[in-house]
Amino acid sequence: MSPAHALSIGKFSIPLDFFRAKKLFLSSGYRPRSCSRNHFTEADVALLIFEFYTKILNMKHSILVVDDEIDNVEALERLFRPKYRVLKATSGDQGLGLLKGESVSLIISDQRMPHMTGVEFLEKSVQSHPDAMRILLTGYTDIESVIAAINSGQIYRYLTKPWDPVDLLNTVDQAIERFELREQLKEKNIALEKALSELKTLDESKNNFMILINHELKTPLTVILSFLQLLNDGSLTEEQERAVGRIRQASERLKTLVEDSLELVSAETGLKKAKFKKLTTTQVLDAITSGFQDQASSREQELKIEDPELSFKGDRDILRSVLSRLLDNAIKFGEKKSEIVVGAQALSPTGLKFFVTNRGKPIPSDRLEKIMKPFTLDEDIMHHSQGTGLGLSLCQALLKTHQSELSFEFSKGQVRVNFSLSGE
């Protein structure tokens, strides 16, 4: 090998002269496992070059060591280099110069140095590396300035000279660990800020969606239904009446979908506000059950009411909407020639619970979670594809206005859906 050549790896350079490289590695303590300490071949040196500098380049953290005594700097480098990439400086100005082009996780500085003290150097390093950890080494009794620097948040720890190598290495490891935690926290905060921004965008999109549905779908539907009414008032053939009836049926279904979608978005975004008034369970139950008698009779089901005539406060329209949807589901998905029960019961000490019960098979938890999501139709459970898939999710959203939610019970062939409310 020629002494005039050197191998460059990244920012590092090593002489390729065999004897100079051998001397370097003998002093460093690094050697291949296959050779003894004092017997190096040229192949050994090449392997050492690869191992040594690959290890340095793969090190995640760099440490800057600053001390006006070169022996101290060299000793610190030997202590830290097995785990960290070490940068060396013998003055504060030289240290600041190194920081301009380096990413450093930890800065270690001696306190008593000419021209610039360690505290002064560490304070200046904050400008270029605000997130780096800082450790001060001092062999003097100027503790007041050290304490002031620590209180100002510039220094993580200070150690006195002569330092204990084990204590110093443990301190450095702890400082690096704290630096990593800070970086992770910073990344998570950035991710949270991004998520918050996306949620705000989503919220705006929901509002725009409501406006779009309200103006671009609901208004034309109203026009279509109005003209259908005019057609019905005129003279139509049997075939025309059948066609108009189908148009009306489809339009009414689309109108229901539009209104349900608007109500869901309104409830989910918090725009839906409950108007709490003093009510009785009778006022809620009587109003909904009367409208479902014919539907239950068509499936030969018996509709029963269990009304304990309890008083409470709530929004009558919201509660009627929730119970109507639950009762509609119970009738459609319950067994034919079975009993459907809708009612309320007192809870201790002042609360109450509304419930709807029908005969049916238990629903597995994974499928239950699925059908609670908007626009989800599980044909394995429902045995048909009718509906919008909004019923349960809309009930859940509406109940948020009363700080409540749906709960399900399955026992002895019975399916029971409940939600609880506070009393007066």
Task: Walk me through the structure.
52% of the residues lie in helices and 18% in strands. With 424 residues, the chain is of the alpha/beta class. The protein folds into three domains: 6-183, Response regulator (Rossmann fold, 3-Layer(aba) Sandwich); 186-268, Orthogonal Bundle (Helix Hairpins), CATH 1.10.287.130; 277-421, 2-Layer Sandwich (Heat Shock Protein 90), CATH 3.30.565.10. A hairpin with a 2-residue loop joins strand 1 (6-9) and strand 2. Helix 7 runs antiparallel to helix 8, helix 8 runs parallel beside helix 14 and helix 9 crosses helix 11 (316-333). The N and C termini lie far apart (94 Å). Residues 8-12 and 379-385 have low confidence and may be disordered.
Label the structural class: alpha/beta
Radius of gyration: 38 Å
Which superfamily, in CATH terms, is the homologous superfamily of the largest domain? Response regulator
In this structure, how is the largest beta sheet organized?
5 strands, parallel
Q: What percent of residues adopt helix (DSSP H or I)?
A: 40-55%
- CATH-derived topology of the largest domain: Rossmann fold
- What strand line-up does the widest sheet have? 4-3-5-6-7
H/E series, N to C? EEHHEHEHEHEHEHHEHHEEHEEHHHEE
From the N-terminal CA to the C-terminal CA, the straight-line distance is: 94 Å
Q: What would CATH call the class of the largest domain?
A: Alpha Beta
Mean pLDDT: 80
Annotation, overall tally of beta strands? 14
Query: DSSP strand (E) fraction?
Result: 15-25%
CATH architecture name of the largest domain? 3-Layer(aba) Sandwich
Shape: elongated
pLDDT under 50 segments (min length 5)? 8-12, 379-385
What is the number of independent domains?
Answer: 3
Q: What's the total helix number? A: 14
